[in-house]
Amino acid sequence: MECRVGFVGAGSVARALARAASARGWPVCFYDIDRERAGEAASQYGGLSFSSLQGLAAESEAIVVAVPGPAAGGVMVEAARSSRSGTLVVDTATFKRGVVAAARGMPPRVLAALTHPLFGGRASRPEKHYVAVMPFPGREGVVEAERLYREMGFNTIRLRSWEEHDRLAGYSIGLVYALAEALYAALESGGLDLDSPLPSTTYRVLGMLAQSVLSDSPDLRGEILSNPSTREAAASLASALMEVARGAGPRGRGRSSYNLLYRLLEEC
C-alpha cells in the first residue's frame, strides 16, 4: 500500500495529523524507533507501520518528520535520501534554525518545506487549528506543503522565512513557556504553589495555562526555553515587569474576552 502521508515519529503531534488525514480516507504510515508505538499508531488510524525509516520513505507521497527539534534536520535528510523524486518532506519543529542547518544535505530531487502545527496532540477539529508554513531556503515545496495541510482540513499561515517564524514563535510560544516558569518561580518564592492564590476568573485561566505548559516534558520545555528567540522575548518580558515593579501604570489595550473565559471555565 502506498502511503499518502508517512509519519516519522508516532508521538502526539503525528497522531493529531494522522487523525485528520485518516478521516479523509488517506492511507497513513508510521515509523518510530519505538516499533511498538508505531504499530499502535498504525492500528489506531488504519495504516501501516514500518520497521525502517527507509522503508517508509520509499512508500510515501509526503513525509512528515515529527521528531524533537534537535533531531529533525538529520532525519529529514535521511528520509529524503530514501524517497522517490518529487516526494514532499516537511518537519514539525517548534524552532527552525537548527533544522535548516542540519537539513541542507537533502538531495535536490525532493520537495521540502518547514511547517509548524500550532496545536498539541489533543486537537480533534482541524478547522479550528492552524499550521504555519514557510519555505525551506533554496527549495520548492512550500505550495505543496500548504496544500497538504489544507486538504487535511487545517488552516494555514504562510510566513516569508524561518527567521520570521522563529522570532514570532519566541514572542508567542516561547514567551508563554517563560511566563509559566516565571509564575511558578514567583509563587514558590512567596511560599505558594499554582493552586494557592484566590481563584479569580483571570487567575484560574492563567493557572490552567501554566499547569498545561508545566506538564510538558522537561526536554520539550528545555528546548523551547533555551532557544535564542525565547531568550530575546523573555528579556523583553523581564524588562516590562521591572517597569511595573517600579510603578509604571497600565499601557496596553485589548479586546474583552470575558464571555469566552467564563464559558471555558464553566465547561471544564
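Next protein, fold it too.
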Amino acid sequence: MSDKDASYGLLSQTSSIEETRNARFQRHLPASIGFQWLKAGWQDLFHRPMPSLAYGLGIFLLSLAAVAILALYGRDYILFPALAGFMIIAPLLAIGLYEKSRSREAGRDTSLRAMLLVKPAAGPQVFFTGVLLSLLMLLWMRSAVLIYALFFGVRPFPGLPHITVFLLTEPVGWIILGVGTVVGGLFASFAFAISVFSIPMLLDRRVDALTAMGTSMALVWNNLAPMIVWGAIVLALFTLCAATCLIGLIIIFPWLGHATWHAYRAVSDTQA
C-alpha cells in the first residue's frame, strides 16, 4: 500500500472527535482557497464546454420536472424543503462532472456519454452512499413537515404565495424560518461532511463506502476554515440558482461539480 493510500484510515480508526484531530488529515490550506477551486472548475467547465453544459441542462430539466410533479399532485408545501434537500444529494448527481475533471487532469477528453456512464473505481459502493444521502433528504423533508405541523397543527397548507409572505413578515414566521434553518443546517452539515469528498474518492479509489464517508468527515473536521468557506460558497451559488427559477443550474451545477473535484484533490493530497 502506498503512503497516499495509507492516508485513508478506516472509519473505526476515526470514530471519535479526538481521533479525527490527526495531523495526517490536516492540509494547512488558506480559508480563501475555495475561490481557487472555483477558478479551476470554471476552466474545466469551458474546456470543451458542451458536455458540461448538457449535463447542467439535464440537472435543470430533472429539477424542473420534480417541481412540476410536486405542484401537480398538490405537494407544493414541501417545495422549499425539497429544494433545500437537493443540496444533500447534489454531490452524487455530480459524479459525471468529477469524471470530466479527472480525465482532463490526466490529459484526456471526455464525452457526455462517458460522463453519464461513468464507472467508479469503488463500483457499487457509490450506490450505498447514494442510498444514505437519499434517506437523509427524505428525513429532512419529513422534519420540515413536522416543523410546519408544530406551528400550524392540522390546518391545510395556505399556498406558496401566502406562506412566503407569512414567513417574511410575521414574528411567528421568523421563528419557523429560524427553527427550519437550524434543523436543515444540521442535516446539510452532516450530508456535506460525509459526501463532499467521499463521492469523488469512490470514483477515484477502490475503497468501501464507510471508509470514504469517514475519511471525508475527518478531512472536513481537520480543515474547518476552508471547508466552512467552501460550504458558504456552495450555499450562495445554490441560492442564486433558486432565485433564477433554477435556470442557473445549467451553468452553476457543472461549475461547482468541477470545482469540487479540485477541492477533493487539494484536501486529499497527503503532500499538500
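About the second fold: Confidence is low (pLDDT under 50) at residues 6-17.
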